[in-house]
Amino acid sequence: xxxxxxxxxxxxxxxxxxxxxxxxxxxxxxxxxxxxxxxxxxxxxxxxxxxxxxxxxxxxxxxxxxxxxxxxxxxxxxxxxxxxxxxxxxxxxxxxxxxxxxxxxxxxxxxxxxxxxxxxxxxxxxxxxxxxxxxxxxxxxxxxxxxxxxxxxxxxxxxxxxxxxxxxxxxxxxxxxxxxxxxxxxxxxxxxxxxxxxxxxxxxxxxxxxxxxxxxxxxxxxxxxxxxxxxxx
Length: 233
Known about the structure:
Structural class: mainly alpha
CATH superfamily of the largest domain: Tetracycline Repressor, domain 2
Number of domains: 2
Shape: elongated
């Protein structure tokens, strides 16, 4: 029995041009939205570069560097704090993705925490100057609010480590996670101040936290070396 080949549905007709030959309203609106999105993306990219170079860069400087007028920058970001916050949101999204990927890679709590700290450092090293700026512009409460899902997953993993005897600490997991987070923020400041090399930050953060969570230093150092080797393989 022969089969009839299914036919594709007919393509929707393109909207007719106006009598003047100008694009139809829907097409014009789409083009305007695309331009606005492109402008916003360019402003964010340029602001990241300018604020990394000069944390005190003004909105005027950022507008000139982006090749737009000041009104365009303020049309997307009503204040400098809003602009910094938007860059911080992108950093938080990248941190969340790195953190989730590390936790999904292993069931062993110490290895998962080490992998997460190394992965997150790889992301935050790019943003560390702006994170220091954000602590002033957004306030630490704003940063912690953005990182709430990462914070919650960290508590769960640390609790597992405590329950399994992989970690030993006088602190409960909800307090221990603050130790982990502040080691990261503290070492970012150490790199900013020039007392620690950036490439040593992630490794140092992971070893420092594992030791704080009760692992003997040789064991913590060996575990982090294994995780680093696996990342570089």
